[in-house]
Amino acid sequence: MRRRRASFAVPAVVWALAAQLASTGSVEAQLFDRALVIRNARIVTMAGPVIERGSILIKGGRIAAIGTEVDAPFLSRTIDAEGRTVTPGLIDAWSSLGRLNGSHGSANPTANAWDAFDRFDRDSFRQALRQGVTAIYVGPTGGPGITGGGVVVRLAPESGGKAGKLIAEHAALAVNFGSGQTAIARAKTYLGIRKQFRAALNYRQALEDYDEDLKEYVEKLEERSKAKEKEEAEGKKEGDEEGEKEKETPPEDSPKPKPKPEPDPKPQPKPDDDSGRLRGRTLTSSTDAGRRLDEENGDGEGGEGGDKKEGDAEGDEEKEEELTKPTRPTPDRASEALLKAIDHELPLRIEVHRSAGILNALQLAEEFRLDIILEGATDAYLLADKLAEADVPVVLGPIVRTPLFENNEYRRHTSRSAAMLDEAGILWTTGSGGHDPRTSRFVGMNAQLAAGHGATQTPWLATVTTNAARVLNLADRIGQLRRGMDADLVIWTGDPTDTSSTVERTIVGGAVVYTAPSAKSRGGGS
Amino acid sequence: MISQQYRRPHVHAALAFALFVPALVSAQKPDAIIVGRYVAPDGTLQPGAAILLSEGKIQSVVPADSYDKTTNVVRHPNAVLCPGLIDVRSQIGASDNLIETVNAIDPGASAIDSVNWHHRDFETALRAGITTVMLTPSANNLISGAAAVVKTARASKREGDAILVTDGPLMFALGSSVWSRDRAPTSRVGSLAMLRAALDEAAGGHGHERLLAFTKGRIDGVVVCEEAMDASAALRTFAERRLSVAIAHTSDVHDLAEELLRRCHAVIVGPYTFADSPRKLSTAAAWSSAGVPIVFTAQMPEHAPDALRVTAALAVQYGMDPAKARRAITALPALVTGVPKRIGSIKEGMDADLVVFSDDPLQLDARVLEVYIDGVRVYRAADAVTMSSRGKSGGLKDVR
Is A37 helix (H, G, I), strand (E, B) or coil? Predict the structure, then answer.
């Protein structure tokens, strides 16, 4: 077994290297890692004061140096950005770009948005790059319920006609509170989500119990075999022949203790709905916050009852204390996904609009000690103080909505919403809304509209760069221009606030992935 | 009751303090507004000026430093003064059903008849800097009636004071929205046949007096065209009869420009949305650079009032000249409404309908700080004073 694995590992490494080479930009750039220098630019770093005339050195897909004086290595490419403004790439923290239409389905915590990401939609990506958007968060569709993992994708062309590269494969666990449903259905959805979290905790408890039981079991086995050895030793004194015979045919139910008893390498394959059954059962048995576990929880597996009987029968034969090998709980991928959120490995992103739903979200966060991010959050401004207190970030949808359709969950929509969150000191950003892939490219204008409606504590560019990166927990990689950050940046013909400024070049991961026709004729990039 | 041809009386000081919008309680009637920049009639941004107001009109526009009076002066040293924005295809304030479903040719209908003056849409529009709207009957009939031009707020108590024109341009429409199962026309071909017949009858002296006035060139026409082929058909039909109309049409047909240029006096485009294709978004730029006068519309309340500036900003982002884009939301829509001598420009003798933006109105982060109608302040953002002294709202110059 091991040998075979090792022989497979060698080509895997080669493949990984090859894929790496082929993926980011040109092979040449990878092989020689030719540095790129942007000179004479007005640099809005978002990490400090604006550098009125400075340079950026990009090497290995990252910013190697930034400032008024930057030493360019030998043979580096240069872009003269005289009169141009450089900013971090814009981030759409709530996008549906690349998400295929019609991928709605039932909520499944084990789903991942990347699986439905259309990496061949290069034209759309180009449109986004043309507007300076370099990274997007895409959540899974479906629901209501826990709909699965959301991803952060960098909009870089890849080999083989594909585009898009994962920055974060597990950016968030997405939850849809079913805003479009009736009140009763919404309440049921919320209860269902709570139940799933409780089931996840039960599952963890079951695993822990199993580990303990297994340990106990092994100890007992060891004890027993020692006792047997002792007995045998004593028996040997009495009569050698009998003892040897016994050794040759050891009883089946007491195997020799392995030096390191591993958990059963082949867990009993169980049908998928087993986890559901487990969930259902625990629900009825426990009504409190879910941290407590009923006694029977650990032994609920189908096969165990049978094992027990068998054990009993054998026990009768042996006339010894029964010793049953504990059964490992059926793997429950859904609960495993939820446990990641419980363990703060990823935040819960809850699409919710009504104030009642937002209160539910806060309750859920408190009950299971989750990190939550609100998505959409039409009514968030009504609960701004509560959200500020709980330190919950908010990703707003479109700032301006079509008023005729402002009914149901959007009834209380106001373009001033961002301004009020801003004032309350809440970490917020605005995304294109996750429902129309075409609007993702204008996430910058969306942020400008928020400022136009009074969200002036946060500069609009910070909304869709720094703040978006912070909400996505990627502030150490994107959203600012400083040393060591990923080289995702935009060269604008002028100040990006000015509507007549357009994107001249978009650089993603150190590679120029969009060049405006005007810039091409202008030359540069020598 | 509304007089046929409304004439605005002088705004008396006494009336100025009795206003219908709550924000107007602290209404102010300055003698002059001094701003850092203003939108000139040609659409360009010009540096500092003092706009002198008198009796609800713009008395004169003088350089900021030549005005030395200090009392009753509003100062916005970092703000941009813009003529009140105009939306030429709006149905705000309309109560209930605007869609006439029986008569396909209905020149007698008047949009003004369905206005509810207390509708909140007027205030929503006002806060977005839109001071005048042309209310149009729904474009579901070949001839749907007369548009009306109204202001979104009044400086006085009287309803009539908000009305600029009751008998505005006659509205026509072509396209599938006109066809119906239970009345003629039922097809594109049928539409044009009926339209030609109606126009020719009117030219011969038969039909509704409004239609007669239109065929004699006494009132303007606006034709809402769904598809490019409808626009072409409309242009052909009206040009053959030597009638000039404005075309309301938004599509991605760039090479329609020449035809539009020759045969109509303006093209009403919009609203553009963030979901539109790049080709559609660059149509306004293409037509505009060919010389076609472009007018933008938000089509409230189907779209939010912000759609007007969003449309202009998107057009600029896709190549339209910024000055032309500013004209497309001020001076040129004024031309379509038929009252370009009263609204749409900052120059002597015009109504003092003015918006103080924190920055260039084409920038979407620019805020509406104050709105004046007939020289009276009818809206003021809560933090207008701090904003205008601080300058750019959340602009990159503030970034630290």
Answer: strand
The beta-carbon neighbor of B303 closest among A402, A457, A498 is A402
Radius of gyration of chain B (CA): 21
| DSSP strands (E only) in B126-185 | 130-135, 143-146, 148-151, 163-165, 170-174
Q: Name every residue in B having a CB less than 8 A away from some CB of A.
A: 121, 124, 273-278, 300-304, 306-307, 310, 313-314, 316-317, 322, 359-360, 362-367, 381, 383, 387, 392-400
List the single best residue of A500, A501, A504, A518 to mutate versus B (max B Cβ within 10 A): A500
What residues contact residue A497 under an 8 Å CB cut-off, 6+ apart? Answer: A448, A460, A461, B359, B363, B365, B392, B395, B396
Q: Give the pLDDT band of residue A219 (cuts 50, 70, 90).
A: very high
Averaged over A499-522, what is the pLDDT? 90
Q: Do A404 and B366 touch (CB under 8 A)?
A: no
d(CA B199, CA B203): 6
Cα A29 to Cα A336: distance, rounded to the nearest angstrom: 40
Are A472 and A171 in contact by the 8 Å Cβ rule? The answer is: yes
Q: Report residue B63 CA to chain centroid gap.
A: 28
B302 CB neighbours in chain A (<8 A) are: 402, 404
Inter-residue contact B248 to B268 (CB < 8 Å)? yes
Residue partners of A46: CB distance under 8 A and separation at least 6 = A87, A88, A461, A462, A465, A466, A479, A480, A481, B399
Q: Answer yes or no: do A401 and B367 touch at CB < 8 A.
A: no
A442 lies within 8 A of chain B by CB: yes
Is the Cβ–Cβ distance between B373 and B151 less than 8 Å? yes
Q: Is the ipTM of this complex over 0.90?
A: no
A436 CB near a chain B CB, below 8 Å? yes
Cα distance between residue B219 and residue A499, in whole Å:
37
Per-residue model confidence as pLDDT tens digits over A312-324: 444 444 456 678 8
